[in-house]
Amino acid sequence: MGQVNQMRLPKSKALWPLFETIVNSIQSIEEVEACNNPTVTIQAIRPDYRQTTLGGEDELTHFEEFIVKDNGEGFTERNYASFLEAYSTFKVKKGCKGIGRFLWLKAFDNVEVKSIYSENGKWYKREFTFSLDKAVQPENNREEITAPVTGENKTEVHLSGFKPVYRDEVALALDSLAKKIIEHCLPHFIIESCPQMTIVDSLGGTIVLNDYYKNPTPRAYWNRPVSARSIPQRRVGLGMRRKPRPRSVQGRSRLRWRSMRTIRRIRDIRGLWKRRLRSAPPTAWAAITSRSWWKRPRR
């Protein structure tokens, strides 16, 4: 696992292992010729215990685990061989570099994979764990099974043991996690080829990302009239600074402003790429899904 030690994952990109898992699910669904109901479900699991404030309200805790489920192609022989090969070029046309699975072990202690798929007219079940100490266990992890009742493939990737150095950098709110996923997978949402994606909080709460992308709405305490005075500004007029306000008020205004700014960014980029894709050649898909154009500049 020398590749894991050589890789660098900044704390600001703590959710990249989850993003890579979701993108893999989307690409796996694209490989299925006839998928009647393409779905991707993300379960965000928090600890069972919850602390209570002096006011009697339950505080949100950090996300500890993630489970990503899809009904795509699954871990077939060719996909599993690509998984075992470092820096695989199997999906290079889609912009993949073959290092996404190493990001799993950079931020998580253990990964469990369960996949039921059909190949050459037969049904198989593949189940294994992936960790830094034991690599892939067991090595012989495929067995033939009878056809499932639903008659469709099913793959589940369980990321557990979120390392504190990365876990503490992730926001606690579920809608904040939803926005991050939409921003990373934005090309799929723009061209409307994205499967039905749902994110579920283990302590309650569900967000359908497809609907959230079309109609992004701020959280309840952000959904208030925004005036020019409530928006934090560094400068007012010609070089004049606004009188500083209490930190708590500034914090609320900053959160509200960031939410509205994210909504405007999604709407602007969505309209821009829709206009571009109308005249784009078919080969533009590889350039769009490479995701290299969506790296936000550092400030």
Give a description of the structure:
- This protein is α+β, with helices and mostly antiparallel strands and 299 residues long.
- The protein folds into two domains: 205 residues, Heat Shock Protein 90 (2-Layer Sandwich), CATH 3.30.565.10; 79 residues, no CATH class.
- 33% of the residues lie in helices and 20% in strands.
- Strands 1, 2, 3, 4, 5, 6, 7, 8 and 9 form a nine-stranded mixed β-sheet that branches.
- A hairpin with a 4-residue loop joins β8 and β9.
- It is globular.
In short:
Helix content is 33%, strand content 20%.
Q: Are there runs of 5+ residues with pLDDT below 50, and where? A: 218-241
Largest sheet: 9 strands, mixed
CATH architecture of the largest domain: 2-Layer Sandwich
The CATH homologous superfamily of the largest domain: Histidine kinase-like ATPase, C-terminal domain
Helical residue percent band: 25-40%
List the total number of helices: 10
Could you say which structural class the secondary elements and strand pairing correspond to?
A: alpha+beta
> What is the CATH class name of the largest domain?
Alpha Beta
The fold-level CATH name of the largest domain is: Heat Shock Protein 90
Q: What is the total number of structural domains?
A: 2
Estimated radius of gyration: 21 Å
Mean pLDDT: 77
Shape: globular
Topology order in helix (H) and strand (E) letters: HHEEHHEEEEEHHHEEHHH
